[in-house]
Every structure is written in structure tokens, then in C-alpha cells.
Amino acid sequence: MNFLVIGGDAAGMSAASKLKRMNKNATVTVLEMTEDVSYSACGMPYNIADPDRDMDVLVVRTAEVFRQKNQINLLTGHRAEKISPEEKKVFGTTISGHAFEFAYDKLLIATGAQPVMPEIAGIDLDCVLPLKNLAHGRRIKSIISERKVKKAVIIGMGYIALEMCEAFEKRGVSVSMVKPGRIFLPWMQADLSRMVQDEIEQKKVALYAGKSVERIEPVETGAKVVLNDLTLDADMVIVAAGVVPCSELAKDAGLELGVGGAIAVDRRLKTSDPDIYAAGDCADAYHVVTGEKCWIPLALRANRAGWAVADNICGVDTELKGVAGTSVFKVFDLQVARTGLTAREANAAGFYPVENMIKARSRAHGHPGSTPILVNMVGDKTSSRLLGVQMTGTEGVAHRINAAAVALQTSMTVAEFFQTDLAYAPPFGPVWDPLLTAAGQLLKKM
Amino acid sequence: MNFLVIGGDAAGMSAASKLKRMNKNATVTVLEMTEDVSYSACGMPYNIADPDRDMDVLVVRTAEVFRQKNQINLLTGHRAEKISPEEKKVFGTTISGHAFEFAYDKLLIATGAQPVMPEIAGIDLDCVLPLKNLAHGRRIKSIISERKVKKAVIIGMGYIALEMCEAFEKRGVSVSMVKPGRIFLPWMQADLSRMVQDEIEQKKVALYAGKSVERIEPVETGAKVVLNDLTLDADMVIVAAGVVPCSELAKDAGLELGVGGAIAVDRRLKTSDPDIYAAGDCADAYHVVTGEKCWIPLALRANRAGWAVADNICGVDTELKGVAGTSVFKVFDLQVARTGLTAREANAAGFYPVENMIKARSRAHGHPGSTPILVNMVGDKTSSRLLGVQMTGTEGVAHRINAAAVALQTSMTVAEFFQTDLAYAPPFGPVWDPLLTAAGQLLKKM
After folding, report:
1. Structural domains in chain A (count)
2. Which of B239, B272, B295 represents a domain boundary (last residue)?
3. Mutate which of B370, B402, B435 to test chain A, going by most A C-beta atoms within 10 A?
4. What is the mean pLDDT of residues A251-264?
């Protein structure tokens, strides 16, 4: 069996390693266009924050280990450029300019996502960078040190942008964030979004929501970021304005695309070609709340999809139930988490959403050190189902969201969720967990 | 409507307050034998740890507020001594020696639990105390300060005993713990129990498992605790050897008792008498995993049961699905949590348990400050269901357990749980949450 993988990150390497474990006789080849495989991409902002910490600590397994210990034919510097489903071959060019071709019995496309780079003058300046792969991370880190960066502009206000605020602050760099939309975190209930904004502004980050970048002009020490009505000086610029799935190869090969231009796959990760799978950020997925297709690029589902591809190719039938869009990030001292649908998303998906925001505490009554936790919960008036939860707070948010994520997985009603037996001890929360209080209050509105 | 409640703690006051909110015309009377109502009993060890923090901060709502704001006829210092279901009356004596009687239309017994006091000489010495109510807490705290306690013996090694170790350590008191059983935490998988024991022993707590206390002898400065083969000096002794339900009143009134001598109630909290309810630590409950009755005295289920009693009396049909026995406690820097059944309990309940222990990390690969998290997971080979989880670690345990608790509530299989979409960010855990890794490994054994 000849298993070929395009892309050596989370989904690709998970599939390659698991398939080789399951079938020692298989030939497993991975084509990776960069020089890095299997690293914790999400760890880069935290690593950039610490000048004394080598970025290579983020590498989970090196290419050498994959080659020698896992017996995977891992080819870095190999850019796939064309898939021919008829010939069952992949064609491409190495970093040194040599053409290559590989035949496959089963192919996995795990090409990931790529940062959206606004089409403006100056986007190609050498002090303007996205943060997608380890090469970007290394480059950003070396620029901060070597050019003694003092001022940075971040284009975008998503997870990576917010995490980079903290990294820059730790490096003594002042930050301005810019995006065209007027609302800071549009997917978040207003009080919760305000809590995040307060945290950012307390750390002296300047927010420019509702401003579009017209161009970036080079100056001797870095750049001038020109907005419609204002110019910001920057020693460096981070572009974190979202990502799009890398699905060009699949599209050109005639494979069906799905939500957001991602490669359409079924619950077994199969594309419209029976011998081609797709997994990770380049592919779509089912949403456990709506039952519909969605495109939510996150690390866990990429790893899980990689494993499922290996299972299915090796004859272990594995269907993925889907994603809930559960995510968490840290913004300075604040934890911000969500799972499922916002009220707006629920409305768009045809539900009859009712939402409620509560303010709870992170520790029991009378216990020292308690801080506020905000919970916004969304339910469906028609079916009584729990549809989604968002939370913010300085402690007890990151893992607490998982209780709601499990509830979404089994289509629990808000009333059923309100009956769950959650843990209580004074240092960790009130007797009625904030999630239960939120459910109880939401029930009254439903 | 004349609603009478015996016991003014979690279940009793929850029921009284909610019923009065739902039915303004009802006469609500609560008979409480102590002087304190509605306080965070679980907060006492943490309060004792801090000499400068008044114990009254643990009071959530005072008797005066209940009387004036909530319009509840709250009678402290009133000990109920007899229930007559035929006359629908309760008889008793006040703390000042006056007999009283109250008629009811509906009665709630919420008498709680009481500490087990070993029948040994010296158990009634004034330096020997359990920690059950606020009076105990105040007394322990004043003894520590006034007698300048330096050495304490704790009889028992349950949650309260472990929490008191930390309180004593913070007060500069050295602690010895004693219990007859040889195994430190018999309900916990051996590696996890070892992790807790290491934490305790690092803090210089001396453990004497497998030793029974024969008597306590008074000496000028406190007591000598005489074990079968050893004598321990103590300025004070805490008795934390478990609790039993206060069900004598119910038993004498001819009500049916259930598991562990607790008052038997149905899912609507009704006893064998149609006009008498029972809720909180004095009553039994259904277990969501076994579907059978159990007696697990914990704060959340007491509050919830109180609410459900008010609902049912007021005509809002509320059935409680049951408890999972989810709990968490803090032992110095360690968080210890569990939900559902241990392998031994599962075996006794007629399941075919398979268990597996994994060692995970609290943060992502390459993220600084990561510490070990141990997860023991139990599944049923016959039905493939998830049966229980235990966890220990210095961070990310207390709230993480709730994801498993929700899974138990809906009888998820281990394979279904393995598919849940849990949150990931490097400061909060690995891409594969420790619970997912545990589920994946357990699946291989099942």
C-alpha cells in the first residue's frame, strides 16, 4: 500500500504515523514544502514572549525521528503543485528546483490554511510578517531582538493577534491593533467582549477598530502603517487578519469544495474522489450543533482527522461526529473560551435562539481571591437544546468550557445540562458552578 | 399552605427561599437547632487557615435577612424531636428548654449529616472536635489562637481531614493523621493516591494508616492520642472520620430508610409519606451511572434537592436525574477530583470494569511551567460506557473533571467521549486533552 500525504503538519503527520503503526508494510511518503514538521504552532506567541527560550522546543518530533524511528519517507522542501486523480499521481518541485512525481494508492491532502494577506502596497516589506509557520516565528523573534523593536502594529484582532499582544508586551514592545470592522470581538456577547477589551487596554494596547489599512510605507527604522485617517509608526507589522484553507490543489484536481472554500469531506474524511482524503485546516467538517458543514480550523480536530484517515484506510471504520468549535485563548491575565454557536450563528442556522449573560465568581462565597466570571449561554426555544456558551474570567474558564462542549456533543437540553453533577470546592468555584447558574437563568427566559 | 422545614442549612434554606418566592402566600417555617443558617461549611478549613479572616464571611445570608427580606419564619435554637405523620405535626424543644409544636401541610426533613465520633475514652475532651458546623469552626479557630496550638492529630483521612492539613500547616501547626485502614485513599487508583500522599508528606504531615485510636488522654497542654502501638502528643484533635445521615427523626416517624441509613426518597424527593419530603445529606439519591440508590453527601446536590422540593410542592413537576458523585478538593498545591465509579465500585455494581491510568501534562509541548496530570479512567467492557474518572495534578484538574461528569450524565460510551471537541491552547493543556488521551488509551484496552 502506497500512502502519500501532502502536508507534514498536525493532520498529515498524525495520519502518516498512525497508518505506519497500523500497517508496517505500507509505504508512507509525506511531501512538506517547508523544512519543519510536527511542531506546536499555537505555542509560537508564548515562545516569542521569551527571548531566552529556543523556538525549537516547540518541535514535538523532528523530521529525522519520523524518518528513522517511524519509517516514514518524509520529504521536506517538497512543494506539491498538481494532483492527477486519473493517473493517481502528485507532481511538484523541490526547494532546489527539481521536479518530482509520486504515485499513490491513497492520497491525503493536509495542506492546512494560509494567512490572508491584504492586497495593499508594502505588504511584502521585510518587517511585515504573518505568523503561520515556524519560519515566520523564528523570523519575528529575530527581528524583535536584532532590530530592538519598540513599536508594533498588528493587523487583525483574532486569537493570534490577541496572543501576540501579550508576547509583545512581555518583550517591552508597545502595540497598536487595527481592523476594518467596528466591533472588537463580533462573535462575543457585548459584556464579555468589553471584559477582553478592558484587559487589553489596561495593558496599553491601542485599539483601532473600524480602520482599514491603506498601505504600508517603508521608512529607515521600519514602516509607517497608513490608515484611512491616521498613520501609525511601526518597527514591525504582524498580519493576523484570518486564514483561508489551502484548497487550490484540490480544486484544480476537480475535487468538490465546501464551506469557505475548504475541501468537502464526509464523516470518514473522504473527498469526492474515493482514493483521496483531506484532513485538517484545508478540509471542512460537520458541526455537532447544526449537523451542517462548517469550516473551523483548530488543532485538535486536525489531529483527530489525521488519525481517522489512517483508521479508514486501514479498514477500521471511523466516522467523526463533528466539531463544536470549542476554543480557548489567553489574553494577558484573562481566559476567553467558547463552544458551539453564538446567538447570531444560531439564528442563521435556523434555530430560535434565546441568550442570557450572567456574572458569577471564580471561588466560593467568603473564599479569598475570587474574581468575576462572565458566562453567556445560548439555548433554542423550539427544541430546548443548549446551543453554545462563551466565557471570560481570570481563572476557571479554560477547562470549564469543556463541560458545555460535551453537552453539545450529545444534544443536551438546557434543562438536562442544569441537572449535571459538577464538582465543587471553595477554591474552585461556587456551589452552583457558573455554568449551572447560567443554565438556570437561561431556563427562566426560554 | 403551611410548609415546615427541619434543618436550616443548604437543602432546607434553598427549599424555604424558593418556595416562598414561588408562593408568596405560603407560611414557611424553618426549625434550626443551631444559631447559624446558610453558610459555606466547605469554606471552614480555608477560613481556619487565616487568623485575620473573620469566620462570619462564610455566612451567605443571615437569619435576619431570611426573616425580614425573605419573609421566612426562621427559628434558630429549635431542636425538632418528633414527627407525627398522623397529626401532621412536629414536636421539639428550644435551646432554652421550652417545648414547641408546629403543624404542617408539607414537611421537609433537611437534617443533614453528623460526624462519626469513635466510641473511645477522651472523645469528649474539650480539645477534641469535629468540623461540621460553624460553631465547631469558630471553636477550632479560637483554640488554635488562644492555646497556641503547635501539634494536632487528625483522626480520619477524608476530604475534610486533608483540607485541615493545609489549614494547620498555614497556622504553623504540625499534623499527624491517623486511621485504621491501611490504604491511604482506598477509592483512588494507586498511582494517583501516591501523588496525593507525596504532596502531604512533603509538607511534613505524618501519616499513620492502619492504626486505630484506643483512647485520648487529657494532659495539661492538651491530650495524648494513644494508638495500638504508639502515642501521639496533641494540643488539639480533629475528628474527621466520616459522617452519617441524621435520619433518626424520620426513622422514628416510620419513614422508609435507604442506602447507608439515609432517608429513602424518590426522584421528586418524596419520602414514603406523601406529605413529607427529604433533601440534602440526610436523604439518599439515584446514581446516574448505576441507576441505583446511593448516599453521597455533597453540597451541590443538597442545594439542588432543596430547589426541587419547592418546585414539586408548588406544582412544578421536577424529577432529579441523580448524582455522579463528582467532587474535587485541594491538598496543598494539588487538585484531586473524581466523578462516577471507581473500578471497584463498578465491579460491585455489576459492570465489567476496565481501567487505565495515564500521565499527561498540564500545558502543551514546549510551554513553560507544565506539571504532571494523572488520569485514571474506568469503562465498562460490556456496554462500552464511560463509568468514572479520577484525576490529580497541580493545575487543570478541578474544572476539567466536569467534562467527564457531563458525559456520565448522558451515559456516553468511552468512544463517544473520545470524539468530544474539547478546548485547546498551549497554556491550558496539550492538543489532546488529558481526558481524551485517557479515553483513547482506555479504548485500546476495552
Report:
1. 3
2. B239
3. B402
4. 97
- Evaluate whether residue B321 is within a structural domain: no
Of B430, B330, B443, B418, the C-alpha closest to B372 is B430
Q: Tell me how far apart the alpha carbons of residues A212 and A222 are, in angstroms, rounded to a whole number.
A: 19
What's chain B's average pLDDT?
96
Which pLDDT band holds residue B286 (cuts at 50, 70, 90)?
very high
Instruction: Give the pLDDT confidence of A95-123 residue by residue, as tens digits.
Output: 999 999 999 999 999 999 999 999 999 99
Residue B179 Cα, gap to closest chain A Cα (Å): 24
| Other beta carbons within 10 Å of A98 | 10
Residue at A320 is within a domain? no
| Residues A139 and A79 grouped into a single domain | no
Give the mean pLDDT of B428-432: 97
Q: Are residues B138 and B229 in the same domain?
A: yes
The predicted structure's pLDDT at residue A38: 86
Q: What is the pLDDT of residues A159-213, one digit of tens each?
A: 999 999 999 999 999 999 999 999 999 999 999 999 999 999 999 999 999 999 9
Rounded to 5 degrees, what angle do the CA atoms A192, A193, A194 make? 90
- Strands B174-179, B206-209: pairing is parallel
Dihedral class, residue B292 (left if φ above 0, else alpha if ψ from -120 to 50, else beta): beta
Which chain A residues are within 8 Å of B422, Cβ to Cβ?
300, 326, 402, 405-406
Q: Which residues of B touch A404 (CB under 8 A)?
A: 406
Residue B200 to residue B177: CA distance in whole angstroms: 10
CATH number, domain of A186, equals: 3.50.50.60
A121 and A210 within one domain:
yes
Q: What is the mean pLDDT of residues B177-186?
A: 94
Amino acid in position A338: R
pLDDT at B38 over 90: no
For the cut 90, the answer to whether the pLDDT of residue B424 exceeds it is yes
Does residue B131 lie within any of the structural domains?
yes
> Is B314 an annotated catalytic residue?
no
- Whole-number Å distance between alpha carbons of A237 and B103: 76
Please tell me the distance from the alpha carbon of residue B252 to that of residue B198, in angstroms, as a whole number.
46
Q: Residue A18's domain spans which residues?
A: 2-113+243-313
| pLDDT tens digits along B299-330 | 999 999 999 999 999 999 999 999 999 999 99
Question: Does one domain contain both B274 and B388?
Answer: no
A368 Cβ under 8 Å from any chain B Cβ: yes
- Tell me the three state secondary structure of residue A208: strand
Q: What is the pLDDT of residues B218-255, one digit of tens each?
A: 998 899 999 989 999 999 999 999 999 999 999 999 99
Final residue in a domain of this structure, among A258, A279, A313: A313
E-strand ranges in B46-197 read 73-76, 78-84, 89-94, 99-103, 106-109, 113-115, 128-130, 151-155, 174-179
Supply φ then ψ for residue A34, to 5 degrees.
-90, -170
Pair B121, B71 in one domain:
no
What ipTM was estimated for this complex? 0.96
